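Section 3.1: Structural characterization of target chains.
Under the original work plan, the team committed to producing a structural model for every single-chain target entering the pipeline before any wet-lab resources were allocated. The record below documents one such target. The sequence was received from the expression subgroup and is listed exactly as submitted; it comprises 309 residues.
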Amino acid sequence: MIVSPFLIFTLIVVVLAVLIVYAGIKTVPQGEQWTVERFGRYTRTLESGLRVIVPFIDRIGRRISIMEQVLDVPPQTVITKDNAAVIADGVVFFRVHDTARAAYQVQHLQEAIINLTTTNLRSVIGSMDLDDTLSKRAEINETLMAIIDEATNPWGVKIMRIEIRDLRMSDDLQAAMNLQMTAERRRRASVTEANGLREAEILKAQGQKEGEILRAQGMREAAFLEAEARERAAEADAKATEMVSRAIAAGDIQAVQFFLGQKYVEALQAIGTSSNSKLVLMPLEASGITGAIAGVGELVKAMGNPPKA
């Protein structure tokens, strides 16, 4: 069977057309941007979707992901300001915002970001003491992010955040720090105990002082009341004596008998309650007491009315 030249030419044209269409139509995935180069020079950037380029003249240069990406910063030994060795590692989150610059301003973009982060991590931690390094991790992250973001901006990269994942010390340094922390805790406990004892002694002394003051005030008030009572008793005795004197002068025998009877009863009560009295003889009949009082009254009456010459 003989194939006609026209058919062969038609097949060639169809194949060339398919190749041209295939070479000129590009499908860019979501989350990526492609650069277009014409004779080796960058011309434009293709967004995601179905795109058309000039076949055999234009070609796809770099395929760049514009999604946020994460890079692991490998562990490295860093010397702090006070010559302590720590092992630090972390992660870097970044996103490409300018595809052309990310493609043509730097070679091996991810490796460049890792090396830049590693170098600056040593610089930042090297300017801090060990205690600050362990306690100010957020400050280290912010400082690193500001430095790396500024350095990578010419590459069309935006640093989203940097996180220090781990800070480890050598076994010897960790043991030394544990001993230091234990000693510090013991010192604080001793200081707290000493302060507690001192405050307890101060409160005890203040309590004793206030108790002595209150005791002195109580004794003074008691002495004052006792003196006042004695004074009132003396005044009462003086008034009673004055009243008896007036009664004797006026010849009122009943008042004299009442006064003497009261004193007699008080004397008997004092004798009866005395701790030194073993045996007491006293008239227990009311008639005896009354007779004694009457006798005294007669004596007073006789003294008040002497016999006439």
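The chain has eight helices and eight strands.
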